[in-house]
From TrEMBL:
Residues 1-39, 1305-1408 are annotated as: Disordered. It comes from the Bacteria. Pfam families: MTES_1575. This is Restriction endonuclease type II-like domain-containing protein. Residues 28-39, 1324-1333, 1357-1381 have a biased composition (Low complexity). The lineage of its organism: Bacteria, Bacillati, Actinomycetota, Actinomycetes, Micrococcales.
Amino acid sequence: MNAPARTPGPGPDATPEHPRPGAPPAAAPSADAPRAEAAPVVVEAPSTAELVASAVATWRTTLVEAAGGSTLADVDLLGDVALDLSAAHPSGIAQLFAGRQTRLSNLVREGSSLSTAKRRARVVGARADEYAQRYGIAPTYLAIGVATWVERTAPDVSTDDVAALAAVMRGRPAVATPTDTPAPADTPASASAPRVVRAPVLLRPVALHARGSGESDYELTLEPSIEVNPVLARALRGRGALLDPLAVARGAFTSSGFDPRPALDRLKALGSAVLEDFSLTERLLVGTFVHPGQVLVEDLDQSSATLERHEVVAALAGDGRALAALARPLPEPIRGDRDPAEERGVGDLDPVQRHVLDVLATGSHLFIDAPAGCDVTGTLAAVVADAAARGRSVLYVPGHRRAATSLTARLTELGLDDLLLDVAPDAGWRTAVTRRLLGAMSLQPQPVDTDAVARLRRDLVAQRGRLSGYVTALHERREPWGASAYDALQALARLTSTRPGPQTTVRLGSDVVRVLDARRREQLAERLAAAAALGAFATRPSETPWFGADLTTNEAADDAVARIDRLVGGGLASLAARAEEVAGSTGLTTAQTLAAWGEQLDMLAGIRTALDVFQPLVFERTAADLVAATATKEWRARHDMPMGLLHRRRLTKQAKDMVRPGRPVADLHAALVEVQRQRDIWQAHCPGGGWPRLPHGLSAIEGQYRQVREDLEQLEQVLTTTPGGGNLLRTPFAELQDRLRRLLADRAVLSVLPERTATIRSLRSAGLDPLLTDLANRRVPPELVGAELELAWWSTVFEELLRADPALAGYDGAALSALAAEVRRLDLAHVASLSAPVRTAVVEQVGATLRVRHAQAESLFGELVEERLTSLRDTVERYPELVRRLRPVLTAAPMLVPQLLPPTRTVDLVVLDAVQHLPIELALAALVRGRQVVVVGDARCASGTTVRELAAVLPEVALRADATRRDPYLTAFLAEHGYAGVLEAVPLPEAAPLVRLDVVDGSGMPDGETGAVESTRAEVEHVVELAIEHALTRPEESLAVITSSPVHANRVREAIMTEVRDNPALASFFDPGRAEPFVVADLAGVAGLRREAIIFSLGYGRTPHGRVLHRFGPVSGPGGEALLLDALGATRHRLVLVSCFAAADLDPDRLRGPGARLLADLLEFAAARGRDEAGPAVTAPDVGAATAPDRLVVDLAERLWRAGLVVEIDYGVAGGRRIPLAVGHPDLPGELVVAVLTDDAAYVAEPSVRVRDRQVAQRLERLGWTVVQVWSAAAFLDPQAEADSIQRAVLGRVADRRARGAVPLAPALHGDVPSGPTELSELGDAQGSRGSDSSGGEGDVTAPGAGSEEDAVDGLRVPARRSVVPRARPAAGPGTAAPEPDAGRAAGHEQPTLPVPGRPRPPVERGLPISAYGDDQLDELAEWIMSDGVARQPAELTAALRFELGITRRGARVDAAIDGAVRRALT
């Protein structure tokens, strides 16, 4: 494979760009020389070995340069960081050499010398602490004797690190000249010039601990080990001296005690024999004699041959094949909760943490992104426990000691401290390791009740399934309705909470609701509104005779009016008169209805037809016998009318004789039947009897009748649906005439009747007939008919859903709460049960290994019992399987790893934690030993290269940031400076700002080297005051001071300790033995630091002329932004920023680095937050994008508000986590105490029952909230009971505060509200069913004299109410006067004139939730405030507006609404 030519680099085949130090300069090309064009060169792509070798060379050079000069070769490099005990009191030295704890005051007894010794001891201790925290190693030794000699040879720095370190320190190049190549003639003489070595002789580890108040004394304890300075030993052996360093060191311990004299004499004799100008001075020096980098260089050399086979190291070197191998896809996270029997790890983990365990189980290397606030310790405890349970060895490498301490504490809390072999960075670590290994050999397994564990897991799965099933059923969208039961509850709550609101009890048909989707309902609602506007539901039947008439078009209406007009205009009256006339002429009864008149006319027509056939004689008598005589035999038999033949013949002849001549009859029988029928009708209408008589003009009479009948029949179809009915033909003429006149008189209603009727008909066709009837019965106005339809639809759907899934109907609030509580109990018990199987598995592995390797176990046991362990690395190499099983988790700092483990890849899992500040070179020793590598850190605040470079090559899983008690606005600030989408601001119960800026007047002269005004006296004194104040007022909160520079940190530490020494009352708070002791750290040492309160003192002041020099030390340099972010993440609760200047004093054009720009933003934010403002860096919420509040929550909030509590809906910071409902108490101003959670959309979006039903609440409880879970079904069915439950929680918090004396004893709520939970029904509005109008009633708290005026609350209509929450009054509100400080002023003294608004205060009630005020109301109130003519700044107008509204709390909605009103008022 060919690749383009590479540019020269640091690799072994690279050509240096600059001449080698000491090499002759290259000859300059001649101007006359012809220029030859360089031909392109194609070279092979670098191999993995070449890339790794090049990277190793770079790493090695960096380690050598980082170590600086070696104090092992020159004790003078210690400077002030050394405690000289050469002149110590002999009795004190004897006590120290005897191995007893010895006070410094017993060693140095002269007053001034003791003061100097204490100061030196503090410096040595600070350096040791710095090494311990930063590197995990504290190389503090007592140096016994100092040897001096002259070195004249130039050592090979490629193999002699001490020489290389000394060369770097002295600022001259260290040249490695091959022995077979003569040095150039012009090589500087300094390359081989003699140098004086001043090396300590014997090194004995010593523990240095502060004792007394304010570090008033120190205690020294020597460890039972000693070694010969390797620099001296190498020099002696390099010149032929026969020296066994171990034998010489052991010779210092005799049967009579420790005596270094023989060892010193032996080394002095050897040195005098082989070293030039050798001398040995008997001195005793305490200092840090080994830099960690020296050990790592040697380890890198030992392991370099195998590094190319390590894929992580190769990837760091840039090898593409290694990068591709590391980039394999990770398994997908498991959604929801898994089977408890399949859970890995220990502790209370969230799904992301369990996903980390799943990924590691595949053997993949991993980078765990862990921003500030994550449960890193819990994650790593689970990781190491899971690995140990599976028989894997773990090397846990913390970047600072704080991380190791946290992991140890967590494993101890879980009962798994037996897994750990913690090599602490102190002089006695060997003894501690010996005891830990010895204790592991006698571990006994603890019994585990497997049946109980299995039963617990079964119960957990069952109960969790029930709860999850209910939630799923509640929120599952069901077809064909396209809605869930939760949607129905929300909709019903929204509908029934409005005032006035829909009240229908109608249920639609199942087939109807299935087809009424949202769009269809919207269309029908528009039709309903149109019908209502046309009077469909407001018009009563008695109001118009046209009510209900079936007229759908204007044409039909016009036709009906025309017909009525004809009838009323004479048609009907004329017909009635003709009927009366005919009755008079024929003897018939006068027809009273058109139907009767028609019957008479039909009779007359029939008689006329009969007389055309028969003579009138036929009507003289009944024709019944004639009908029978002319009938058939069968007819007579059927009608039971027997008749003889002769009789029939006679009657038949009579019938024929009655037929008119010349009119043949085809069917005599049928004709006689018709005659008989007409005769019966005549007799019915003519009581006088006689032959029928026909009126004159019968045909005209019939024509008039047909015309009137046609009109009435048409009108009858129209009027059938009216209250009067449609039986017009049988209505008496007088009544009919009157009705028609009334219809004609009310013809005006026909202008809207057709449209109304058509609309109603379409609604009925849609299946809404029952609803239409209900709306008409209740005369619902147009603005509510749409809501009525929605209520009917949602009510029907909800009942359908309950029928479809009966499980939904089986839970009420109490049952759900009990089920959730049971799930939480079982889950916690399950989490607690995870540790025992892990410990049992580890103990069983230990036992099995001890049995298999019995001989080795006996040998190791003997060494441990006799305390012959001098090197853990040697022990691991001789007993590898035993040591890794005894304590499977080895904890060691990066610099201790080479001393503990051989340089081979034998560790199953290497975990690098909290190494953001470390360069990659320091982590290599741990990396190369691991078969699997896990790195935990935050690349955003990484000032070193380890996390950044490893994060770039390893697959990544990001942890969830847990809720912290830091100011939520500070979390929002961090989110806008690199942590967007990672950190989420969680609201706290307290509203007071927890971040502030203190600007002090500090100035001084610039430093000659740095050019900065560093560590002014005023700033140091102010920090001391803050620290002392914190210790006296908040001793329960841990505290740390962070500074930008080590110089300022040292001055602050010394000043505070001076105060502590002078004030014994402060000793307990500043005791270093506290769980989280007080510390002072610079930015470089802040990694892993976490405290409740942080004082961040910038440490840079102004010049005497007041100028800011814009030189901020590490903040202005590379990685300054990361250092600042790490410092801000150190606070758990409070942050005080101390500076000699504010953001306004900085010139943006001179802030060139990201760290300096972040500092300016931080200063501006802290100043604004101290003024109780969000700060310009925090984005304001998008009010327009805010979602509508949960109506069930709004209803609860109203009930709690009426009970006199303080409520906030959707409480939180812009862009952060929201709490659906936060509740406080008037007796706890500025604080909300109860967080109400619901099964809303955010709840359902979390698939894990463990997270949503337990961990979310626990996180809020850790922040100080009391959490109450309200289920939507319970809040809908019995909202008052849920409100009572919330109020009991609030009153419980208040009672607890009163018991602790934090709240003065006072009536709970205005003195008229019972404080006991049994009388909560008297606190709010009266109990009633949902949907009833809850306005008014005894439960309402209304202002005296308040009328019926209503205010809008997010679409709700609620009665105007006054606040029951006492508010703090500002000093200068508009139209209000602050109380005079002196009521007894002399008469006649001129009083100040207060501004008075120029018009009455608008009727905007005080104390309501912010959502109760519309923009118009806020604008009116702001204009009224401004009407006093006083010029106000935005902040002043905001304060005045808040006062008038009675709002003291901060929140996204509150800030957005008030800020908007202020902007509108000032523009």
